[in-house]
Amino acid sequence: MTTTENVLRANRDAKKDSLIGYFPAGYPTLSDSVEAAVAMCEAGVDVLELGVPYSDPVMDGLVIQEATQEALENGFKLRQVFDAVRQIKARVNTPVLVMTYWNPVLQYGVEKFAEDLKAAGGAGLITPDLIPDEANDWLRISDDLGLDRVFLATPSSTPERVRRAAELSRGFVYAVSTMGITGAREEVDQLARKVVASVRNEAPEQNTAVGIGISTGKQAAQVNEYSDGAIVGSVFIKAYRDSGIEGLKVKVVEIVSGLNK
After folding, report:
1. Higher local confidence (pLDDT), 27 or 178
2. How far is Cα 47 from Cα 40, in angstroms, rounded to an integer?
């Protein structure tokens, strides 16, 4: 099993909840994002999602859009994501998954991107706009290098697409809790339960983590009742934006305190 699978399965077997935390590389600067990511891991995040800033973030909510735009304005370049992963992994053992739209990977070169990610110590990729049927190169290369590949399942996914995502994801399937863009919401959409159930129906042993809209420890705990992990992003970025790295640490600890650890 991959490192991500090991972490999520170990927590599940021990009846512990899992928290997957997102932070964008390069926000507000590369060194700042490394410090923020390390702080999140040390404060209790089980798996880290390191986002790649992109000029057309169609799935991202306002908080993430503003953060990634600031990173780009401050000079972030795609190749720096590997520097960030390398620096983070030098300090923590937490699995680091890079979350990226597919176009930057294509422009960089799929094989080159995968090789550089592996060399930096990255666990794999979360690809929100890439479906398995269009991922032949990535499937082959990730198999060769042993990298995680996380595909999405949504409330509108067809049974066939859910089946493909469930069978071909490695690490976990990213279950989107509601239609629309990311961002904290008052309640996590009940459709999340249906998405997780559909994944488990296709691949009972596959890990499934729920994201989009989770902003409190209570919500994260509720999600863990029927999935293998809660994915939290916007609320962490907002905490950092408003109160710096200390505010970020407080927010991570606050959410972790609501989980069964």
Report:
1. 27
2. 10
Q: For residue 173, how far is the Cα from the chain centroid?
A: 10
Sign of CA dihedral 134, 138, 141, 146: negative
Q: Please tell me the predicted confidence (pLDDT) of residue 3.
A: 92
Reduced 3-state DSSP string for the chain: CCHHHHHHHHHHHCCCCCEEEEEECCCCCHHHHHHHHHHHHHHCCCEEEEECCCCCCCCCCHHHHHHHHHHHHCCCCCCHHHHHHHHHHCCCCCCEEEECCHHHHHHHCHHHHHHHHHHHCCCEEECCCCCHHHCHHHHHHHHHHCCEEECEECCCCCHHHHHHHHHHCECCEEEECCCCCCCCCCCCCCHHHHHHHHHHHHCCCCCEEEECCCCCHHHHHHHHCCCCCEEECHHHHHHHHHHHHHHHHHHHHHHHHCCCC
Tell me how many domains the chain contains: 1
Return the active site residues: 49, 60
In the structure, what pLDDT confidence band is assigned to residue 216 with cuts at 50, 70 and 90? Answer: very high
Q: How far is CA 256 from the centre of its chain?
A: 17
Distance CA 141, CA 8 (A): 24
What tens digit of pLDDT does each residue of 91-115 get? 999 999 999 999 999 999 999 999 9
Task: Please tell me the distance from the alpha carbon of residue 210 to that of residue 152, in angstroms, as a whole number.
Answer: 10
Task: Give just the sign of the alpha carbon dihedral 56, 247, 223, 146.
Answer: positive
Looking up residue 126, the CATH number of its domain turns out to be 3.20.20.70
What is the extent of the structural domain holding 240?
3-257
